[in-house]
Fold this protein.
Amino acid sequence: MSEDFEPKILAFCCKYCAYAAADLAGSMRLSYPPNVKVIQIPCTGRIDIVHILKAIEDGADGVYVAGCMEGDCHFVSGNLRARKRVEYVKKTLTELGIEPERVEIYNLSSAMGPRFAEIAHEMTDRIRKLGPTPVKTRTV
């Protein structure tokens, strides 16, 4: 893969935990790749299959959903619904001949700023190895 490939990654983050962890990472001056675009959502339970697939269709090389720790969702079971939806998207991508590793879900608490930065690096490295998305219609 080309050394200069910088993947475009979208991170859908729960307002209460993962987004707060991203904010903490920033407050701690932890660096993470600038190609990760964070989108705040009220709860990962609000993420729909269509949101993830549309992000990929629009040119995202990778997408991840980050929410509360399992069992600690502010909306009771939102993160459990999100996990099922992410698994469904992975299955759909496999059927379409696209690497399911382009999509992932993570659980974080608001105090896990360093882990948020780690995840951003992990996803960037993973997607860099996979290369650009095979579904390139527009840029994100």
